[in-house]
Amino acid sequence: MQMNVQLVPFLIACLLSTVYSEDSEEFCYNSPGCNATTWPIAQLYCNGTRQSPINIVTADVKSDSNLTAFSFTGFNDSSTLRNINNTGKSVIIDLEGKKMSVSGGGLQNTYTSEEFHIHWGNGSSFSGSEHTVDGKQYAMEIHILNLRSDVSVAAANDSTAYAVLGFFIEATNDSGKPESWKNLTSFLSNISKKGDSFDIMNQLTVDSLLQGVDRTKYYRYLGSRTTPPCNEIVVWTVFKDPVKVSKDLIDLFSNTVHINTTADPFITNNHRVLQALNGRVVTSQPTSSANTTSSANTTSSANTTSSANTTSSANTTSSASTLHHTLSISTALLCYVLFWCL
Ligand SMILES: *[C@@H]1O[C@H](CO)[C@@H](O)[C@H](O)[C@H]1NC(C)=O
Ligand SMILES: *[C@@H]1O[C@H](CO)[C@@H](O)[C@H](O)[C@H]1NC(C)=O
Ligand SMILES: *[C@@H]1O[C@H](CO)[C@@H](O)[C@H](O)[C@H]1NC(C)=O
Ligand SMILES: *[C@@H]1O[C@H](CO)[C@@H](O)[C@H](O)[C@H]1NC(C)=O
Ligand SMILES: *[C@@H]1O[C@H](CO)[C@@H](O)[C@H](O)[C@H]1NC(C)=O
Ligand SMILES: *[C@@H]1O[C@H](CO)[C@@H](O)[C@H](O)[C@H]1NC(C)=O
Ligand SMILES: *[C@@H]1O[C@H](CO)[C@@H](O)[C@H](O)[C@H]1NC(C)=O
Ligand SMILES: *[C@@H]1O[C@H](CO)[C@@H](O)[C@H](O)[C@H]1NC(C)=O
Ligand SMILES: *[C@@H]1O[C@H](CO)[C@@H](O)[C@H](O)[C@H]1NC(C)=O
Ligand SMILES: *[C@@H]1O[C@H](CO)[C@@H](O)[C@H](O)[C@H]1NC(C)=O
Ligand SMILES: *[C@@H]1O[C@H](CO)[C@@H](O)[C@H](O)[C@H]1NC(C)=O
Ligand SMILES: *[C@@H]1O[C@H](CO)[C@@H](O)[C@H](O)[C@H]1NC(C)=O
Ligand SMILES: [Zn+2]
Question: Any idea where the Alpha-carbonic anhydrase domain is (predicted)?
Answer without folding.
Answer: 25-286
